[in-house]
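Cross-check.
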Amino acid sequence: MLRGIHLTLMVGKAVAIPAPQPVVDALVSAQVTTASQGRSGFQLQFTVAKGSLLETALLPVGYFDPGVRVILVATVNGLPNVLMDGIVTRQDMAPSSDVGGSRLTVTGEDISVMMGLIEIAGFPFPAMPDFARVELILAKYALLGVTPLVIPSALLDVPFPTDKIPEQQGTDLEYVNALATNAGYVFYVDAGPAPGFNIAYWGPEIRIGVPQPALNVNMDAATNVESISFGFDGLSREQVVVLIQEPITKIPIPIPIPDASLLKPPLSLKPAPTLRVKLLSNTAKENPVRAALLGLAETAGASDAVTGSGQLDVLRYGGVLKARGLVGVRGAGPSFDGLYFVKSVTHDIKPGEYTQSFQLAREGLISITPRVVP
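Predicted model, tokenized:
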């Protein structure tokens, strides 16, 4: 590994332990992708020498079989970062007649993949709001080191048992994701803060907190990104309008839903105009609370107008850029400088090289802050 960077690989059936040195030495590359929504994934590539420990002993006993747990920790300048706590889902072998040319590729997803293995139909949740159902489901995965972090919905819609009893359809993962979508929330499992522990977050996409070190471009010696580019899509934002029905006259009343949240404050002074209008007609027969929830969910899913993408070298940047947080940009000009939300990050680790590809997003142009902290 690079000076100042140390990669720890842990593997095990239920409890992951440090991999033996021959396995670590055979590691050619590691790639981990983390996004603000959905599951994270990883891919490891090993060289398999003839007669090696991997070929003769570990692979035959199922060392990297599907279902095996893998933890990756990158220590940068003395600070450990748990990049992945996941489960192997696939194994590919590419034999070669060249010396050292055989390759083993191990692919997997984060620990939430265990929530999507068993179909459940008709499990009842009487008189339970959505967040309580999520907490009950996540409690089943405590043995995997999963700690729930569940944020109650802004508007509670608790159906009376005499009217309706909510029932689970599909796997735990499908049901939790469906509840998140209906509330305008996100669900993901974040590895860490220590190896073997995970935070299962169900709540709004949080765009507050302390920003990470700034991404500098076109700043001579202070430049710490290899490349970065931005795009402005004027058709990505939309005004959501819900229809509710007046109970006596049955007249539909349109109500525009504001794009506002305490946990998602604006990151720009000039938000992109909402050129598109989306009418939700399926809310007409819902109660006002349910109609508002559906409207807020649709608004939360609206795309950001300004996006950025690029690549950086971790040593030059001075640390690991993390998804699901804020980061500043400097040197891109008044329109595109300022704070952004990190939508996704892909880690590419090879002997002598650690780079990251990233995706940024916000709702408009021009920074809300006079300067970005380096």
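The chain has a mean pLDDT of 88. DSSP finds six helices and 23 strands in the chain. Passed to J.P. for a second look.
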